[in-house]
Amino acid sequence: MRLMIFGAGFSGLAIARELAGECVSAGGTTRSHERFTALEDAGLTPFIFEGQSLLDDLVVATRETTHLVMSISPDAAGDPLLQLFSEGLRTSMPHLEWIGYLSTVGVYGDHGGAWVDEDTPCRPKSRRSIARLAAEEGWTRLAAEAGTPLAIIRLSGIYGPGRNALRTMQQGKARRLIKPGQVFNRIHVSDIGGATALLARQRLGGIYNVTDDNPAPPQDVVSEAARLIGVEPPAEIDFETAELSPMARSFYGENKRVSNARIKQAGYGFLYPDYHAGLAALYAEGSWQD
């Protein structure tokens, strides 16, 4: 396997830690030289990619790539790689065997708290989710033209070391917003790495929800974090009267329970099947502050 991860950030590095050790070569992109050490620590050869063009060293590396992971969010102009590879993937990556595209469960839109799965029609509401769905469609076309399996990996709310309710609680930023009936799914970043690695190793295509077993009210996660670190949870705040940014409020405009049955059927067993397990592990390891 010759792996290239475009956008080796929080999720991309988790994927690298799962796969880099079994690769003939493994590379990842970042916008900043300051992040090179983080990529190297995860087993990646770092490359600069700022979204407009591929530098010469990255062109050479992509020509040898067999497994591509795309983890860069669309910007106002859309998905940057779709534009760069519009002439076809085989021209730039003649040895490509598998593509993984990291998307979001936000593409399903609002379903009033009902269960959704990969066959549920997408009806995104937010601009960012609409852009994600357009990117999914673009990658589907490119992959079909290249005859390459494409795994669309739809992620729920990501947490892990340094990015979690325990840390938010410690920093005094946690809020228990109450909106009756509201639930969210979550996913530990290590499970993103594990599930993506499984799909890559088996070169599996299709759409997969990579999310936990337990869609739950957000205030319950805050309460569990408070319990673990031994403090009182913050007071409840009515969502309707809370002071929130437009983006924060928009997250609460979508309510659904997301099924992860398909990735389990593919053979993946979750390390952290719910937020209880994930937060408890972060606390026990001490990695929640990293």
TrEMBL record:
Keywords linked to the UniProt accession: NAD
Domain NAD-dependent epimerase/dehydratase: 101-210
A Pfam family annotated for this UniProt entry: Epimerase
Record carries keyword Nucleotide-binding: no
CDD domains associated with the record: SDR_a4 (cd05266)
InterPro entries, sorted: Epimerase_deHydtase, NAD(P)-bd_dom_sf
Keyword Acyltransferase in record: no
Lineage top rank: taxon: Bacteria
This protein's name: Nucleoside-diphosphate-sugar epimerase
